[in-house]
Design brief:
The structure holds two protein chains of two kinds.
Chain A (H helix, E strand, L loop, with lengths): L4 E3 L2 E4 L5 E6 L6 E7 L6 E7 L2 E5 L6 E5 L5 E5 L8 E8 L8 E2 L3 E5 L1
Parallel strand pairs in A: 2-11
Antiparallel strand pairs in A: 1-3, 3-8, 4-5, 4-9, 5-6, 7-8, 9-10, 9-11
Chain B lengths: L3 E4 L2 E5 L4 E7 L6 E7 L6 E7 L4 E4 L2 E6 L4 E6 L8 E9 L3 E4 L3 E6 L1
Parallel strand pairs in B: 2-11
Antiparallel strand pairs in B: 1-3, 3-8, 4-5, 4-9, 6-7, 7-8, 9-10, 9-11
Classes of the chains: A mainly beta, B mainly beta.
Chain lengths: 113, 111
Amino acid sequence: DAGVTQSPTHLIKTRGQHVTLRCSPISGHKSVSWYQQVLGQGPQFIFQYYEKEERGRGNFPDRFSARQFPNYSSELNVNALLLGDSALYLCASSLAQNRNTIYFGEGSWLTVV
Amino acid sequence: GENVEQHPSTLSVQEGDSAVIKCTYSDSASNYFPWYKQELGKRPQLIIDIRSNVGEKKDQRIAVTLNKTAKHFSLHITETQPEDSAVYFCAAPHSNYQLIWGAGTKLIIKP
């Protein structure tokens, strides 16, 4: 049984560029959340999607956007990249929306230079 | 909103001794408290969680205790081993859709 899968695992981008990160939840899970983890800190909530609708948004600028597809996979998009966007981006999957156990993917390491 | 504080930031214990990490939360409505272990360069992995209808939960060498009155919960690791070295995070839910995380505790197991 596959866990949460994310791609790409590592990428390097230049300031001002755009990036798309992808996530496939655990089979049967309908909720996907995105977290940003800067080195030395705990994960910070970015978005939650459930049944293809945005259900929650953290304190991130409009440069960050996401969507969920009919198969429950998800994309996180970040425009106009800044050096401070360099972080580990974690996708988390859960069965339903409300306070259930979440399982993380391996993450996508983004470096902005 | 929810606020989670975690202590200590670094904990060094002798191999075989016990380690205790504590977290406090602010939202009395919170009812789910997970603990995650993160090794260097890897994702956070759920190691144990507790729901508010119980006061303690054990899984082999790991236990979590919850005091709802005082709004704090703790992770206990007994008979520590070198592979327990990692950063440990507590978390508590905020609204229906997100976890608020503690700042993390770096656990060092000395041989």
